[in-house]
Structures are given as structure tokens and as C-alpha cells.
Amino acid sequence: MFFRVFLHFIRSLSATAVDFLPVMVHRLPVFKRYMGNTHQKKGIFGQCRDLPCVAPLLTTVEEAPRGISARIWGHFPKWLNGSLLRIGPGKFEFGKDKYNHWFDGMALLHQFRMAKGTVTYRSKFLQSDTYKANSAKNRIVMSEFGTLALPDPCKNVFERFMSRFELPGKAAGFSYKVIRVPPEKVDLEETIHGAQVICSIAPTEKGKPSYYHSFGMTRNYIIFIEQPLKMNLWKIATSKIRGKAFLDGISWEPQCNTRFHVVDKHTGQLLPGRYYSKPFVAFHQINAFEDQGCVIIDLCCQDNGRILEVYQLQNLRKAGEGLDQVYNSAGKSFPRRFVLPLNVSLNAPEGDNLSPLSYTSASAVKQADGTIWCCHENLHQEDLEKEGGIEFPQIYYGQFSGKKYRFFYGCGFRHLVGDSLIKVDVVNKTLKVWREDGFYPSEPVFVPVPGTNEEDGGVILSVVITPNQNESNFLLVLDAKNFEELGRAEVPVQMPYGFHGTFIPI
């Protein structure tokens, strides 16, 4: 009753009194739980300053294989029964050897199991061959994305030299391959039984193919994006000899344009259209669908492709001005829409926009050499820029993957890791934002209410962590419609910031 009276009182405060709230909330932690989102619409303009250090979110933690009961605040819907599974790096050194890059850390699996309003947490390191080999030697014996393994100190000089030496492969034989994997195993021993290559795409530059993280897919087509984040195959093949990690062979080359390859998913045939746009980097697709003879693909795009360098651990763990400089130099990611017309007539006039779609300003213009130049539509307004852009996009995949859609969810990045959750309406280009100062939410996962056909009829799950040892990490549940908090499940366990996850219903 006291809290209801208190909240009613707060709503009646004048603008002057509201300015006093941050101080009061900070002094009275019990109020913080109810008033933590009072700053969610505060924007950041220009260069960021005085960013808090998040190094504790990027350090080794202990696994928690035994279930830990979470403390519930608010409520979790009774229909929400299943497990949120997440993965990310959780171990960054073995003995005296330390990893250099965020992508290098050993995989830590997390499970939040929800059943009838209760939540239980556990975690365990993936028992990969690399994890086992490093653990047995108590040092890094397998090279990773940004870390070169040192030679075994027990070997003689000749053996140490040979352990670095590998003959480079033939770059001419490289191609991008998309593999179809059956949705179910034949038996427990098989992992990808029945997998087959359905298409093979030759890179534009044989010795320097593009780094890629994902590809788009509609009901009938695969969209592979060849971006100017290049992998120098010779550098990569000779990296051990040169004493360099894999990352040294990747470079951002903005003098090259981005190219879209469209493949018929059923035949594996590459369509003849040659689609180009200005240089950008995209790690994650939002969605792709077909309409009026076109493929429409929505992406989170960055104009600065040096983000892999930014994610070196020495950068992420900085504090003070050094941290501010790293963040302000990093590219920001924003949602963009591209239109790729599929049936382009040889007689189509040069300079014509070939897109027939009235609901998007994205264009596809035929050039003199027969290529199609694609200009994007921004799926946002200025308010998303104030949120630092958006990444880790998610939609209601069960009903809207490969179809025309309206909403997606992601993390806002006013820091080097996500510091807010955002719901984007791609039709009206409006936002809803959840934020709590000092806390860093992970990729949002949409879980629909059983039986719903509404695109936002469900909840958002996100693991929210903090570098503050006096606060608890928690699993957050938001109403997907209004983006208001329903509840949280606090767990007194240190967790690192991770990448991706999925919900498995029971």
C-alpha cells in the first residue's frame, strides 16, 4: 500500500521535484526497483563522456552447474514455461596465458528455467576439444580469433618452429557455401546428419573474400551479403609463421562497395542480378521477405567496419578517457531496408528506379553496365541515434520470419555493450525503450503467448547484468506490447556479457 501511495505522489510532483528523483532513488535503493526507468528517454548527443567501466562484465567467472533458485520481484506469467538458453565467453585465461579478443573466450552456457512463475539458473562451460586441451595444459594451446597460441615450452627449438609452420592453402578454390541442415537428428550420435551444400558463391576477389556472420532468407531465396570487411587468405594462412592471430588478416576496405547475392533456395542457382550499395558492414539480419517481385531485406548496418578491432579486450576493459575514446571511435549500427528487384528486364531504362513498392523509399536503380545500385531506407528517426544505435535484432520468428512484419527488438548501445532494450516499429519508425542505469541487458528474446497471432502478443526476456558487486544480476521479463516490466528474477551469481540465446518451451 505504501508503494502505491508513493507512486501516486511521484506522479503529482512538479518538474522541479522530478529533477530531485535521481538523488532520492540513489539514496534509497528500495525505490530504485520501481523508479529505475525514469531516465529511459534521456538522450545522448554527440560524443559520449564519462562512460562507466564495464571490465567486470568481461572477466572470467565460475560455472554454476547446480540449479540456483532466483528471487522473484513482480511476477512471471504462469504460461511462461521453458528455458532461456544463452551462450557467450566466460573464461578469458588459462594459467598465465590470456586471451586478447572478446570472441576468444571459452563458451559458457546459461540456462534460466521457468516453471509456473518460478525461475532456476545454472551454467556450465562447453566441454569443447579446445577447452579440454587448454585445461589439461593449463595454458592456451589452441589459437583463437584474436590470440595466437604460444609454442609448447617443453618442445625443442626445431619443434617450436615447426609448430608455427603451416603451408598456405590455395586461395583460388575458396567459395562461400550455404549448408542446409535437417531440423532433427537421425540419432543421438549424429550432429549434422544429412547436411548438404545447397549453393556455392565465388567471391568477387578470390584472394580476399568477405568476413560474414549471417545471411538473409525468405521463403524462396537466400541473400548473401559480400561486404568490404575482407579476409586476406595469404595473411591468414601464414599467420602462425608471422606470429600473428587470425584477426590480423581481416581489414576494412571501404574503397569497395557492398554486394548482394541472391540464390534460389530450392535449386541452388545464383540469380543473374548484380546488386550493389555503398560500403557497410552488417553482422545481423532483422528479417527478409518477398513482395511484388522483389526481395526486401532489413539489416543492422554500420558504416565503419573497424568494430572487430574495437572488441579487443584491452579496449573493452578501459576506463576514463581511454574508454570514451574507444566508444566514440566505434561505428554505430542502425536498421536499414534494401529492395532487390528479381526480374530485371534487359530493356529496362538506365537510371530508372526498379522498385515498385510504394511503402518504402529504398531504391534500386539500373546502371549503364547493367548492375543495380541499391540505396537504403532508414527504418528509424533521430531518437535511435540518441540511443547509440541498435544491435542483436529479434522478431517473432515463429510467425513472421520471411514475411512482412512491423516490430523488432534489440539492444541500444550507448556503451560498448548493450545498455538498453528497444522495440522498433518499422512502419511508424517509433521506439519504446527500457533502461536502468548501471545495468546492461542482453539480446532480447520474444516469447509469444500460446495461441496468439499478434506480432507483439507475448513477452521479452533479457538477462540483465551489472558490474556493481552490490547489485544482483537478473532475468527480466517485459510486456512486449507496452514494453513495461512485469518482473525480474535475481540471481546472486557473477555473469559475463554474452551474445545470443533462444527460448525452448516445455
Describe the model.
It is found in: Mitochondrion. With 506 residues, the chain is of the alpha+beta class. It has one domain (48-181, 205-505). Helices cover 16% and strands 33% of the residues. The protein is built from 13 helices and 31 strands. The strands form eight sheets. Strands 2, 26, 27, 28, 29 and 30 form a six-stranded antiparallel β-sheet that branches. It has a six-stranded mixed β-sheet with strand order 10-11-14-15-20-19, with no helix packed on it. The two termini are 36 Å apart. Mean pLDDT is 87; it is low at 1-45 and 156-172.
Quick recap:
Residues 1-17 form the signal peptide. The protein has one domain (48-181, 205-505).
Task: Categorize the overall geometry.
Answer: globular
Number of helices: 13
Give the total of beta strands: 31
The largest sheet is:
6 strands, antiparallel
Index terms:
metal ion binding; globular; alpha+beta; 506 residues; disordered N terminus; 6-stranded mixed beta sheet; carotenoid dioxygenase activity; single chain
Give the SSE map.
Elements: H1 2-11, H2 15-18, H3 21-27, H4 29-35, E1 68-69, E2 71-74, E3 82-91, E4 93-94, E5 97-98, E6 106-115, E7 118-125, H5 129-137, H6 157-164, E8 176-180, E9 196-201, E10 216-217, E11 221-226, E12 229-231, H7 233-237, H8 239-242, E13 250-252, E14 258-264, E15 275-277, E16 281-291, E17 294-302, H9 307-310, H10 313-316, H11 320-329, E18 334-341, E19 363-366, E20 372-375, E21 377-378, H12 382-386, E22 390-394, H13 397-400, E23 407-412, E24 420-425, E25 430-434, E26 440-441, E27 445-448, E28 458-465, E29 473-479, E30 485-491, E31 500-505
Parallel strand pairs: 15-20
Antiparallel strand pairs: 1-7, 2-30, 3-6, 3-31, 4-5, 6-7, 8-9, 10-11, 11-14, 12-13, 14-15, 16-17, 17-18, 18-21, 19-20, 22-23, 23-24, 24-25, 26-28, 27-28, 28-29, 29-30
Helix pairs in contact: 3-4
